[in-house]
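In response to the reviewer comment on reproducibility (Comment 2.3), we provide here a single inverse folding case reported in full, input and output, so that an independent group could reproduce the run without further information from us. The structure tokens appear first.
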């Protein structure tokens, strides 16, 4: 690492606790708003450790089409992502470590239903409310896997 990147890193580290605190507060809003939505579950909600609240993943019900859900949110101006694909499916592990025939049913099921919602320290309550409103709207329409 060069000196410029080191300097940036030092400044960013000074902000880390405050950013984690802000994201933690935002995840509480998400959890409160999304907890009653049929078709969405919140993994790690009761985790006893200390979280950095780096991302906010949710799991869709097995009857929900993830691509359509993510597409709907994209139409509403909400960027989502997927974290993280099962590593045993990566070419390196399949080829180099002979994982081509490995089947991890639970891992693959969870990976196929996970969606990461927006979460960043400068995000405000109104943005979180909007994301939650659009998710609620999606499920009120009764959209299922097709």
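Designed residues, in position order:
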């Amino acid at each position: 690492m060069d000196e410029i990147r080191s300097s940036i890193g030092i400044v960013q580290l000074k902000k880390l606790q405050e950013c984690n605190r802000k994201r933690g507060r935002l995840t509480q809003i998400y959890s409160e708003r999304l907890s009653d939505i049929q078709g969405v579950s919140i993994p790690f909600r009761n985790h006893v450790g200390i979280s950095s609240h780096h991302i906010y993943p949710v799991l869709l019900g097995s009857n929900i089409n993830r691509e359509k859900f993510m597409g709907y949110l994209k139409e509403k101006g909400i960027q989502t992502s997927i974290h993280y694909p099962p590593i045993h499916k990566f070419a390196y592990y399949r080829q180099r470590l002979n994982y081509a025939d490995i089947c991890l049913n639970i891992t693959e099921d969870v990976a196929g239903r996970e969606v990461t919602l927006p979460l960043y320290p400068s995000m405000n309550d109104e943005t979180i409310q909007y994301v939650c409103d659009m998710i609620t709207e999606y499920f009120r329409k009764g959209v299922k896997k097709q």
